[in-house]
């Protein structure tokens, strides 16, 4: 039996030929499935901009179901959902503005902490720093461990002397 092509979006497989792939990739079902997959990852601002231009779907608002589903040209977002999107977009914009440095250059210590540690901020009162990975106990007790295998912390990165690496 020959090779088969599997489409993740459509959950379908067929014979791997150029014409069959072209036909499938240009089909309306594949295009719809692909678009609905990527709609999951849209930014709240983008969704808000798209949905605020649309009028509410009367059938979806009254019955709770629409025959067109995600392909409907009317909005399926309720006013509380729109309000929540507005709050998410405002929160994201405020975080972006607060994170921008005053002199144009980011703080290197903040970048290192963000990259190597999982910081959980609960309303700004407590900071919990958790390492992203666990170091095996045999490596911790080993006396002559090369620097490239030693556990990574923000302090060790700042005090690193690369000339010792050999």
In short:
The protein is of the alpha+beta class. The protein has helices at residues 18-25, 28-39, 44-53, 58-62, 79-99, 108-116, 137-141, 154-158; strands at residues 4-7, 12-15, 117-122, 126-131. GO terms for molecular function: nucleic acid binding; zinc ion binding.
Describe the protein in words:
There is one protein chain. This protein has three domains: 41 residues; 58 residues, no CATH class; 65 residues, no CATH class. Helices cover 45% and strands 12% of the residues. It contains eight helices and four strands, in the order ββααααααββαα. A two-stranded antiparallel ribbon has the order 1-2. A hairpin with a 4-residue loop joins strand 1 and strand 2. It is flat. The model has no long low-confidence stretch (mean pLDDT 78).
């Amino acid at each position: 039996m020959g090779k088969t092509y599997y489409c993740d979006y459509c959950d379908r497989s067929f014979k791997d030929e150029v014409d069959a792939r072209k036909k499938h990739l240009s089909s309306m079902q594949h295009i719809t499935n692909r678009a609905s997959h990527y709609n999951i990852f849209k930014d709240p601002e983008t969704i808000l901009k798209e949905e605020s231009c649309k009028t509410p779907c009367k059938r979806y608002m009254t019955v709770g179901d629409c025959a067109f589903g995600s392909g409907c040209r009317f909005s399926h977002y309720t006013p509380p959902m729109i309000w929540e999107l507005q709050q998410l977009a405002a929160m994201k914009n405020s975080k972006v503005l607060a994170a921008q440095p005053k002199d144009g250059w980011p703080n290197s210590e903040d970048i290192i902490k963000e990259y190597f540690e999982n910081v959980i901020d609960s309303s700004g009162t407590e900071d919990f720093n958790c390492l992203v990975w666990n170091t095996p106990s045999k490596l911790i007790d080993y006396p002559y461990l090369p620097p490239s295998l030693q556990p990574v912390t923000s302090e060790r990165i700042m005090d690193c002397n690369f000339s010792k690496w050999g």
